[in-house]
Amino acid sequence: MSAIPQEGDLAQEAEVIWLEDTEDLDYVRQALDKVSTRKGKPRYERDGRMIGYSNLTPTAPRSADSGLFARRTFYLLPHDRPNQPDDPECPYRVGSPLEAVDPRTVEAGKVGTKTSRSQASGEIVSTRS
């Protein structure tokens, strides 16, 4: 199960771990996944590749209904612009998916934001904080 994270979902985050250098990535997708551990690389079951994930504090509680922990995963799908920067057929040549954020705006405990870089549009699109 995954969802788009909201600020309140991230209160127990201790750190964000990047598996790749994000400097050249316009955006990454973020999802809040239910996993069995508080830290360490979670299982990845999507197309594409995992770019990073969050670790939780040692006291982060399990979900009462599932017994799992809610942690963020950052990823790119094969058709995303950072994977095909020069492809004129790329579906996100301008703009980005709903769950995409500029990785430079990601911090533990804070939802990332869309920027002109993530949108490839030249203007700030969202200022969630």
TrEMBL record:
Pfam families assigned to the protein according to its UniProt record, in alphabetical order: DUF6009
The UniProt record lists the keyword Repeat: no
Residue spans of biased composition, Polar residues class: 113-129
Keyword set, alphabetical order: Plasmid
Protein's name in the database: DUF6009 family protein
Biased composition (Basic and acidic residues): 38-49
Region annotation (Disordered) ranges: 38-64, 79-129
The organism's place on the tree of life at top rank: Bacteria
UniProt keyword Iron present: no
